[in-house]
Fold:
Amino acid sequence: MAHLFNHNVLLGVSGGIAAYKSAELVRQLQERGASVRVIMTHGAQEFITPLTLQALSGNPVHTELLDEKAEQGMGHIELGRWADLLLIAPATADLIARLSMGRADDLLTTVALATAAPLLLAPAMNQQMWKDPATIANIATLSQRGAQMIGPASGQQACGDTGPGRMEEPSIIAQAATELFATGELAGKRIVITAGPTREALDPIRYISNNSSGKMGYALAQAAADAGAITTLVSGPVNLTPPDHVQLLCVETAEQMLNQCLALLPQCDIFIACAAVADYRPATIQEQKIKKGPQEVSLPLVRNPDIVAAVSASKHSPYTVGFAAETNDVVSYARAKMERKGLDMIVANDVSDPSIGFNSDDNSVTVLWRTGEHTAERANKGTIARQIVTLIAQQIDSAS
Ligand code: C5P
Structure:
């Protein structure tokens, strides 16, 4: 069954009578595994209190654009980046009109402009308003820009009219939200992804490692599974919940990661090396705890195998994607690394900016392949991962 695990749904509620159904919608989204945050317009608060939606979503409800305190917590830019999906239900005629004009006159419309996440609208209004040429034109404009619609349904309306304009039922909206992520772009493809750091032991209790959180690799595994790929995640030690429908194989050292990946290669169409593999490991692992001794000690290290280079050089070589964390001349270093390691694609990011990359929830990358490149603007790692998966699918399609 399709699901919303590990997906952040930002639910916008505008001011229509159907706003009372948003409470049930929050529950339905959560039952499918989503994390939910809610933005309410002023009109929405006339129909349902923020407290209700706060209690159900487990997060403070966002209502104000020009509120110093709110902006310090999670402001409009952070909310936009946090979202994997902006779902507006109900979307009133006025909200739809303001969205179609690209206005930013309250928090909800501002976030709609400030997010790279897809937009799903559940319109709700009087049937005559729905049929009005102005609304029809606004809906057409938003559809052309990529917004998706669910509903409205037809039937008895709160105002006594009968016709199209009722907000779809929460279960149907939640299902539509779920299906948005099930792209099928990599249906049936077998994909192996490395993630997280490796850990290289010095003695029974100490090791060399790095700060990789594994978030990008786990987000890629989620995006690959959503795209229909049979997904295996070879992960170093991290503190993350494994994505649903993904086979998780845990390893510690670079050598274990290499052996696990090589064993998987005969059943692998796409390989993504996202792990931050330790370049060196101690030449020997001491059997007993190393005792404190002289002021200075030196530690002989040996080079670890390059996993992604070994994969691309193997006879089963799949479509191979690597990552390049650089601090300067990002694109030219990354392109050179792609050539040197024999990769089909490389995802380059600038790690000189501490607010993206390693431990952060956001990233901003340039994806390079032999004949082109694409820059993904700063967004959460789920959104970036879906863009990378789409690019891989396009490149594989164009080569076949
Ligand atoms: O050489 P560098 O570490 O900059 O290369 C980064 C890319 O190579 C990443 O895709 C990383 O997962 C992969 N890599 C690897 N094995 C190593 C070192 C890096 O697979 N030993």
Remarks:
- The chain has a mean pLDDT of 94.
